[in-house]
Amino acid sequence: MIRLENIRRSFISDDVETTALAGINLHVASGEFLAIMGPSGCGKSTLLNTLGTVDRPTAGHYWFGDRDLAALDEARLARFRAEMLGFVFQSFNLIDELTIEENIELGLVYRKDRHRDGRGDRKTRVAEAMDRVGISHRARHFPHQLSGGQQQRAAIARAVVGDPRLILADEPTGNLDTENGTQVMDILTSLNAEGATIVMVTHSPSHADYAARRIDMLDGSIVASVSRAI
Amino acid sequence: MNRFALLTLYRSLTRHRLYALLNIGGLALGLAVFLVLGLYVRFETSYEKWLPHHQQIYLVQTDWHMENSPFNGAYPNTMGGLLDELKQDFPSLTGTRIEPVPFTVIRNGIGVSEDGARVDSDFSKVFDLQMVQGSLASALAAPANVLIDETVAQKYFGATNPVGQTMTLRVNGEQGSYRVAGVFKTLPKATDLVFSILVPLPPHANEDNWHHWGSTSLYTYLRFATPAAAHTFEAKLDDFADRHGKADIGEHASKTLQLRLLPIARRHLTPAGMQAASAKQTVVTLGIVGTLALLIAIVNYINLATARAGLRAREVAMRKVLGASRAVLVRQFIGEAILMAAIAGLISLAMAELGLPLVNAAGGLSLAIPYSLAVPALAVLVVLVGIGAGFYPAVLLSRFPAASVLSSSRAPGGGQAGSRAREILVIFQFALAIAFVIGTLVLGAQIAHVRNADLGFKRDGLIIVRSLAETESQRGKLMTAFEKLPMIRSVTLGGSNAGGSGNNNADNVPLPGQPGPGPSLRWISVGKAFFSTYGAHLIAGRVFDDEHGSDDSTHRGRNDTRNIVINRQAVAVLGFASPQAAVGQIVGKGNPRKIIGVIDDMRFFSPRVPMDATYYLYSPRTQGFAVATLRYSGDLRTAMAAVKRVWQQIAPEIPFDAASADQRLDELYKADDNAAHLFTIGAVLAVLIGCVGLWGLASFNTARRIKEIGIRKTLGASSFDVVKLLVRQFLRPVLIANLFAWPLAWLALRRWLAGFDDAITLSPLYFLAATMLALLIAVLTVITQSLRAARTAPAWALRHE
Ligand SMILES: Nc1ncnc2c1ncn2[C@@H]1O[C@H](COP(=O)(O)OP(=O)(O)OP(=O)(O)O)[C@@H](O)[C@H]1O
Ligand SMILES: [Mg+2]
């Protein structure tokens, strides 16, 4: 489904060039659950952002299906994100001014294809998404009224409410305790079992074990790719 | 403030340059507007206050209460002999008359007109003019003495000592030699006492009208030791008028003509007669505008400062952790505000200095900044503004709980409540700005309407020669010579002319079969070809001509029937069903007048005075007081030059005074024009200041929403979605502002338009146009920030805390 060809990304700030990604080649098959690991600053988030098209590579090709995303303009990319992707972040990134329910609904409002039909339909989908992560009772609360684990589950609900083809998770358990972390991993696993493709960055080897394949990065390059024996 | 506080202030100012610019610039602008308008209000309200003991000087007003007369209201002048009659009854009274009459200084046979007045010898007991040479009291004792001001002394005598020199003056048409007996300091600008030459008032006892109650020929000033004494005296004036005015006005004369006392300092802003109080309105409006501009600027400062406070929460929290007390922090922020206000104050002085010429030109003023007064006043203002503007952000900032600020990733900027307050401030500012824009549009439209309205005559191509009224023997010769000029199409004489030059006369016309004195009509005596020269529209009957000998009313007595032409207004006032029905009718009982024709109303006077019912009398041969009107073709300057040349050949000793009808009419529109100009400047500034407020709100909210925008973009929002979201949010306060602006503007403008006889209707289009303009400006104000926010890469936005 996804093919990265020689993706490079460097940042130039204060005349210092930092190479975050130094020629990444990667395949992700449809329905795969991939974990990315590596020391801090090795470029994991940059890779994930590139996959999510919120960051543009300096060079290289990004094939999604048979489309070269590098060739798309900003508006098309926005549409691509709305239709195909779901994001989960370490710091949840819920909008403080919106309720949990509204935050989740936001995962639908920018979609121009499906689910534009009626508010009522949207509400049902949101309710389903909240149900599946178990935060329905907090629908009317604001993010700061929730615990970290609950916030992260809400963020996952937002990511999956639009049935994305690809879920990108950047240290989704990084700010959570063990119990909440396990809960989040269970949700991701079951999403994967239902067919979602997941790419997840994590620092926790045990959480990486939930994934079918694991790649290790160092200084902007992939140094190892390990598949879990089934 | 310690060194670190100053350092952080300096760094945050230089790091957020646009913030600093808007914050200080906005405040400076507000201060400058306040300063300039304050100067204007101070000037307009300072009239005659420079006079020593001005509180003791009162002007006698003649207040008319006649039945539906166009001349009702209080006028600043009285009959000539009033002071004499007052002194008969109240011998201890102190008072003087000031009679402004035409003054011409004749030098080498050429006349130059000057502002002059004849005054009583008691003048010095009322007005303490500052003398440069000679004594005021003794100079006015001898009849052939003249007093001149420094300007005139310089003009005619240069370096030589004027005292003892002789001047040839033509005072009120009579030529004579005068000895300069003293020089007084030129009067300041803030005065309605326009004279630079004074001569003693000669005895007038035998002149007709001098003791005619109801005539108004000069100014009578009285002086009282205390306001109470003036009050007591004023109470006796009704009885006095009843006693003395019986012969001219009838029993209970004070019911028709009342004498009143007006403190001299209030004269300038007191309108004469039915004139609308537009000067006062302008002063009050601009005074309010100045205060509001300052308030808004302060509010904007608070707005931006609290916005910045949110960004500085972490700094404050750290200071607290390091042991700064709340009091220290409050002091730091107020100190900062005072420092910023002081910088703004300095800039505002520069702005005012740069802006004054513009304001002076627009408002026909000559204001200057009195630094000895402005600087200390500004210093006080800066401290007050600093405390006022710094207090809220200071308290807000110092109250942030340090622990939660440091542990949360969110900047507390007063949260929901804070942004609501900011939004209300923006609503308030835009309401004012929109109201101002509506006002500017309507003022402009009304003035254009006045300028283009059909005045009932062709206003282009007319030259009004006012100085003709001063001529005697040369008059006929002048008119013939004018007529012979190639570019002059026709010439005429009129007792009253376009632009208001001439006389004001009114007369009661009793109606047949109806009791009472009848309605009061203005009357104007006209010469040959008056209506054709003006291009009046005849509606019914005919105008005067020499074929009908009976048209000429010159030598007809009051009891003979005289032919008159009336205007459209008069048709209704005299009770006729139509102009046609009026023709051939005779009105006026003992003083019969036959209507031979009806013309459309010719508006000679201010657009603010109601159109009077008027009748015209034909007197082609003698003219007591007449101004010439010439219709020319071609270029005005050529025609004017030719007319002037003719004048200087025939009547060189009389200063030539002529202008086109357009110029004369323009003088009537000047006050409103000036008000409109000042209003336009005010509107531009209000919009500008409003934009600063909106920009502040937008920058604050956008900064606060950077992360949210990033999240929305990862969820697939396009840049366009984000711009839409932000712009819509910022337009909301602007739209709500209309709810307040519209009624406010509507009420104010309805009042202003009521002052005009011929006013435009308050069409909703002005309101819509102002709203559209405000929306457009608002969008332009926020669009760059919104675009920038929308374009930021979401990955960056999410890293941005
Ligand atoms: N916007 C940026 N500007 C400049 N440099 C950047 C930017 N974003 C990332 N980098 C640099 O790119 C490199 C990779 O960063 P990245 O965030 O991908 O690391 P990471 O592997 O996710 O680390 P961590 O585990 O700490 O989250 C780092 O050296 C970082 O400093
Ligand atoms: Mg990272």
Assembly state of the chains shown = heterodimer
Please, what is the average pLDDT of chain B? 83
Total domains of chain B: 3
Give me the secondary-structure category of chain B.
alpha+beta
Number of helices of chain B: 25
Uncertain ranges of chain B? 406-414
What would you say about this model in short?
The complex is a heterodimer of chains A (230) and B (801). Chain A has 230 residues and is α/β, with parallel strands linked by helices. Chain A has helices at residues 44-51, 74-84, 100-109, 119-133, 148-160, 178-193, 205-208, and strands spanning 2-13, 16-28, 33-37, 59-64, 67-68, 85-88, 166-170, 197-201, 213-218, 221-227.
Walkthrough of the structure:
In chain A, helix 3 runs parallel beside helix 5 (148-160), helix 4 (119-133) crosses helix 5 (148-160) and helix 5 (148-160) packs parallel to helix 6 (178-193). Chain A is globular. Chain A has a single domain, classed as Rossmann fold, CATH 3.40.50. In chain A, the strands form two sheets. A six-stranded mixed beta sheet of chain A has the order 6-7-8-3-9-10, sandwiched between helices. Chain A is of the alpha/beta class and 230 residues long. Chain A is built from seven helices and ten strands. Chain A is 33% helix and 28% strand. Helix content of chain B is 51%, strand content 16%. In chain B, the strands form three sheets. In chain B, strands 1, 2, 3, 4, 5, 6, 7, 8, 9, 10, 11, 12 and 13 form a 13-stranded mixed beta sheet that branches. In chain B, strands 16, 17, 18, 19, 20, 21 and 22 form a seven-stranded mixed beta sheet that branches. In chain B, a hairpin with a 5-residue loop joins strand 20 (586-587) and strand 21 (593-599). Chain B is globular, with a radius of gyration of 34 Å. Chain B is an alpha+beta fold and 801 residues long. Chain B has three domains: 1-45 and 276-413, no CATH class; 54-266, no CATH class; 462-667, no CATH class. Chains A and B meet through helix 2 of A and helix 22, helix 23 and helix 25 of B.
